[in-house]
């Protein structure tokens, strides 16, 4: 007979039942409403809506810019987390608190602020404009807005892992003659990699759905700087509810597939490093 | 016991308004904010004198189509005041909250005043913009909101189209070419009229902003009269913002009488005067004459020349229609 460890939560059936019920109401029901609404479309019509050249251009922009923003944050987020964990300096707590600001700020406010700064007559824009760099109202502006909004995801997932890292590991590596780069590459990096990937996935997913901040800085030119969420809004403005849900379903499916892929990658990374529980 | 009486009191206070409801909700669009700020107190005073009843007037503002969508989805509007027919048609068509012939129930196709598209240029008019054809010149930045998401943008598109079609030797093919060369000069495509104004005035992008005549007055109040000039083109399109009662809602709330009076008062001399003061062109001849100085005479054509809003929406602005084709051709160039 196997000894069964009693769980903190009473009654597995009860807990699972509650979990599924809650998840259904909050997540699954709204999402299935989307699918049910779309099912009123025939396949041809559905395909025609989602493969319109203008919509396809918006997918490329949305997913491309989101990927770019998440990649940028992969590096800068790690850097910020590293500095916040490993160094002591005046005003550190203040900066630590500031990292969360993009979370709290209404994204529209962020968008307007960024547009004001990077517009050709803005604080930064006025110096870049004569050099031929246009940021606001171009795809670059979109990447900047997405980078701003998603920064906390990487920082906040990596930070606790870095904090919990045991110093003894590094000391041991050092005593065995490892260089600093080797310590980072062979000891620290594998430990934080799963957290980094999680942060990357969260940032990426958040960027795909972002609307408020982008809309003010994008310029919204057809085929050039229209993001997919704008295509959905634009369909709604024409009372085309079905068309809007069709595009929404595409975003849903692609986002889910990407998250699954990244989760798989994470799982693989953890397993390869022998840390999987 | 005390708790019980409190509960009864709360229950009563929440049901009471159902008996003596004299609250009207007017669901309107962005640019009408200033007008109804003046109109509502005037009507409340008039209604108090006429019926002895106090009336509370609530406003909801936003993009016109977005507002219509809220009403379709259940926002309890007694009256709607939109910037084009399409939006109220959608409420009649999709939610069946009012009859399809709603526009016939009030004079002037239910539009109490009109406006038109004008060109707003920078101080001193450095690019020498006089008429629609100046918008096609290379190097002229034109700020117009997106015709897909904004009534303001649709009016601009149609004004430019009408101008080109009416030129000697003009036809639909030439008009299309003309509109394409205007839209090629757009550096930023905002979602709505107010956003376009911000882009032009605050961010100082572009050389000309195309918007409603009454919006020009708002810009003067906000940014100062000396910062821009209003140019009246040789011909423009007449914008007729319509109003309607939402029958299903007023019948449920018992506010039909008040709502009807609220809209009819728009055509009264007092209502027309307030419109004129907000730079909306009044329908009333006498008041129009009184304010003639602020409304330069200009040749106008109406949406009827395009066959009405429903047909226009289908041929020009629906997905895959002419505007989309133009946008695609611009992107490929």
Name the descriptors.
heterodimer, A: mainly alpha, MetI-like fold, B: 333 residues, alpha/beta, seven-stranded mixed β-sheet, four-stranded mixed β-sheet
The description of the largest β-sheet of chain A is: none
Which CATH architecture of chain A is right?
Answer: Orthogonal Bundle
Number of domains of chain A: 1
Run of helices and strands of chain B: HEHEHEHEEHHHEHEEEHHHEHEHH
Overall pLDDT score of chain A = 88
Strand proportion of chain B, as a percent range, falls in: 5-15%
Number of helices of chain A: 13
What would you say about this model in short?
Chain A is mainly α and 277 residues long.
What this model shows, in words?
The complex is a heterodimer of chains A (277) and B (333). By secondary structure, chain A is mostly helical. Chain A has a single domain, classed as MetI-like fold (Orthogonal Bundle), CATH 1.10.3720. Chain A is built from 13 helices and no strands. In chain A, helix 3 (53-86) crosses helix 10 and helix 10 (180-209) packs antiparallel against helix 13. In chain A, 32% of the residues are buried. Chain B is built from 14 helices and 11 strands. In chain B, strands 4, 5, 6, 7, 8, 10 and 11 form a 7-stranded mixed beta sheet that branches. A 4-stranded mixed beta sheet of chain B has the order 2-1-3-9. Residues 14-19 of chain B have low confidence and may be disordered. Chain B is globular. In chain B, helix 3 (64-72) packs parallel to helix 4 and helix 5 (151-166) crosses helix 6. By secondary structure, chain B is of the alpha/beta class. In chain B, helix 2 links the parallel strand 1 and strand 2. Helix content of chain B is 46%, strand content 14%.
